[in-house]
Amino acid sequence: MQRLSSAVMISVLAIALGGEFVSSAYSATKVPPGNRSASQPKIPSSSVSRTRATNGSFQAKYEKIRDLIKTNKKLQSGIKKAAGKYGIDPIHIVGALVGEHTYNVDATDTLQTYVIKAISYFKEDIEFEHDGENVMEFVERPEFAKCKSIKASYDLWACRENVWKATFKGKKVDGKKWPNDRFGRVFFQPFYAGQTFGLGQINPLTALQVTDMVARKSGKKKLNAKKANEVYKTIIDPDTTLIYMAAIIRTSIDSYKKIAGFDISANPGITATLYNLGDVKNRARRAKAKSSMPRENYYGWLINDKQKELESILK
Prior knowledge:
This protein is mostly helical. It is built from 16 helices and 6 strands. Helix 4 packs across helix 5 and helix 6 (111-123) runs antiparallel to helix 11 (228-236).
């Protein structure tokens, strides 16, 4: 029997493991730590408005989430455990937490508050729907036929989102006018109280995309869009939100390495930027087309700027 080369053996092993981690033998350009921009890119007006509405400041919000991580040993332990399970540096999870709670929402004072919210959501009768049409009924329309054969959760939901953009977003289909808005906002925001939830500020659609990886790596039950309350409970509960954060970040690192040829694992500002923006595989494809090193946005810039301080709070 012919002996397989080490590269082939690594590829076979990666497939056998579900392809969730990209082989270290895969050639990629290392993106170094630090910011490429000398000064912070402009912060969106929506983020500025939210902060002003609460008479707060970005600095105060930054200090609040930083101190929550620094003083809560259970949270620190959860961050390190989730990071270890998914093969990433804990600073990537810290960066996503700090970015979300500096620019999007204020950190809740105690993790127990999130637990209480998770329980309340679990009891609610919730559906992911728009104008009376459940999202799982919606994706059974013939326009989504090309997505039916896709098994991987990320690629399946990405396909459905692409069909939404191309066929329904802002258009009139079968006599019905569809909103000119994101798929996640139209179908996955039943309370109109924000698009993201919990400590990790995770979008339900994003959680559904990485649920395969979480099931493989953490043994958690796969999320199902038909059971919206379970999705909400999962992304709000601090114990599970950290796992999903790690899976989202792992997906970003793997996608940029495999698709774009960039290893972003040493730059938490880039992973934070992608956590903020989402749609990582399409962004990786655009990065490949440009053949230029990825650049941090305003959100990721803060994480790189504060990296040493943020790393010190976990020691």
